[in-house]
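so my prof wants the structure for this chain in the tokens format not the other one, which i didnt know existed until like an hour ago. anyway here's the sequence
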Amino acid sequence: MNKLISLLSLSFLFSFSSISSAHDLMAAIQSEDRSPKNIARDEYRNPAKTLTFFQIQPDMRVVELSPGGGWYTEILANYIHNPGVVIAAHFDKDSKREYFRKSRERFEKKIIEKSMYDNVYIVNLSSELAKEGSVDAVLTFRNLHNWLGPQMDLIFSNSFKALKPGGLFGIVEHRANPGTSMDDMKRSGYVTEEHAIKIAEKHGFILVAKSEINANAKDTKDHPKGVWTLPPSLRLKDIDKDKYLSIGESDRMTLLFKKP
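here's what i got, hopefully its the right format
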């Protein structure tokens, strides 16, 4: 199956309906298809609680924004089944930045080579994502700091358009202390809840709920290399490594919005 499909093909796919068999979230999280390296991070990423909070069901049509190496894609691919699909909005295929192109190529290779990803389709992050009003949920995990500025507006706007009325928009992001400046957010990789909510509401979303599922009170957010000082990046390598490992991964906001 060709997983790199156009929006036209995707909208054609959405015209079909079928009965969804029961698929269990915990079974997807515990699947042997997941890599041990990814499983080791469940302690900090809390996939069962997070996806439950986001109200994700196995028959949904879900967009995952900027999936990176596919940590959550791995779970979603196991969990979501026909008539549900996962649309992975990855770095643009023709990006001028080599890092983005290489990351997209690695992701495509991963998706194409394993049959577990047969219900995963790839589109460009800067695209319309899906036919207007055609998806049930849009999710993003630890990406807002990369989009601060006009790109965040574009992605939030396209997410709103792609969602059905009543569709859900779930955000997990490194959480900055209130009052953190835009420059410091860009430098540190932490974003304030206030800013995330402001941009979401600007594009028509309504805040439904907040959760502390991914909170970490040990994170002081004043690290020399920003959020990348902490695991899994450990940007300082062996310098104070035990200290940062004892803190764990970043303190994160978990926000759920809805399209009216």
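also thought this was worth mentioning. The first helix runs from residue 7 to 14.
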